Each structure stands twice: as structure tokens, then as C-alpha cells.
């Protein structure tokens, strides 16, 4: 039977998580977008994607059925061009003091920021690919710290 986990007996602790998504571009579209300062007809790609990711992380519990609504104490989203891979690397970190972690909030933000990049760039090239949505690390709570070894 599907259900939300009862976290009422757990203590509130400081918790953090960082997630990443990578948006890969075909060579011609990468050159065009980089040449335009990563701006399209829809606007500044990084600014819009960061805003979308931030909005999404605050609403994670509304989109993933058994995620608890938790207070977000802070978040940060960065988008870094990687010329060698013709990629934009989206990273999101989230902080809370709560009874459960913010891994899903960080991953939701990274994924929605990446999807927003795709949406803003699809007029240039629909062959853009989003890869490697993953948790990079989490800290706090009963299980302590975990860092992705990849």
C-alpha cells in the first residue's frame, strides 16, 4: 500500500543535498548558443533556468506523491558551460533544518532547470539531450553523509 513515511519521531537536524544534471548540445547548436551568450528569443537561458529550478524545488512535495513538504532554508543553482563536452552543467544545492532530507528537492531543481534549458533552446535544435541527473552528496540526518563516488 503506498503511503508517506511517518517522520514525526525523528529529530529536526541540519540537512543539505547537492544534485546535478548535464545538458548536452550538438556541435552546431552549441556554437550558435555560445556565440549568442546563451541567450535565445525566450531570453537569458541561465537566468530563466535558475528561476525555474528554484520555483520547482519549493514545490517538490506537490509533484512527487510521498515527499514531505519541508521548509527550505536556502538553495543555490549554478549553470556552468563545459566546452569540451558541449554541455551546460546544472548544479543545485539545498539546505533545511527538518525531520527529512532535501535530496528530492535538489534533484527536482536540477531536472527542472535542465528541462527549462531544453525548452529555451529547442528552437535552435531539438537533438539536445539531458543526461546524468544524479545526487552528488547529502549530509545530515540519521544516515549522516553520503558522497557520490563517480
Task: Give the helices and strands, then pairings.
Elements: E1 13-24, H1 27-35, E2 39-40, E3 43-44, H2 45-57, H3 60-63, E4 74-82, E5 87-98, H4 103-121, E6 129-139, E7 146-147
Antiparallel strand pairs: 1-5, 1-6, 2-3, 4-5, 6-7
Helix pairs in contact: 2-4
The major pleated sheet works out as:
5 strands, antiparallel
Enumerate how many helices there are, as a single number: 4
Low-confidence stretches: none
Mean pLDDT: 97
Helical coverage, percent range: 25-40%
**Distance separating the two termini:** 34 Å
Radius of gyration, whole Å: 17 Å
Which descriptor suits the 3D outline? elongated
- SSE sequence, one letter per element: EHEEHHEEHEE
Structural class: alpha+beta
Share of β-strand residues: 25-35%
Write out the strand line-up for the largest beta sheet, numbering strands in chain order.
4-5-1-6-7
E-strand count? 7
Amino acid at each position: 500500500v503506498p503511503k508517506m513515511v511517518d517522520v514525526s519521531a525523528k529529530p529536526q537536524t541540519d540537512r543539505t543535498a547537492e544534485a546535478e544534471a548535464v545538458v548536452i548540445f550538438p556541435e552546431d547548436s552549441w556554437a550558435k548558443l555560445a556565440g549568442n551568450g546563451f541567450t535565445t528569443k525566450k531570453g537569458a537561458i541561465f537566468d530563466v533556468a535558475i528561476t525555474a529550478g528554484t520555483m520547482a524545488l519549493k514545490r517538490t512535495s506537490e509533484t512527487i506523491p510521498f515527499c514531505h513538504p519541508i521548509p527550505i532554508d536556502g538553495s543555490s543553482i549554478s549553470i556552468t558551460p563545459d566546452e569540451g563536452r558541449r554541455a551546460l552543467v546544472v548544479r543545485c544545492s539545498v539546505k533545511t533544518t527538518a525531520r527529512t532530507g532535501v535530496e528530492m528537492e535538489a534533484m527536482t531543481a536540477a531536472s527542472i532547470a535542465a528541462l527549462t534549458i531544453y525548452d529555451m533552446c529547442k528552437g535552435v535544435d531539438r537533438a539536445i539531450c539531458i543526461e546524468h541527473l544524479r545526487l552528488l552528496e547529502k549530509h545530515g540526518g540519521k544516515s549522516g553523509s553520503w558522497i557520490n563516488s563517480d
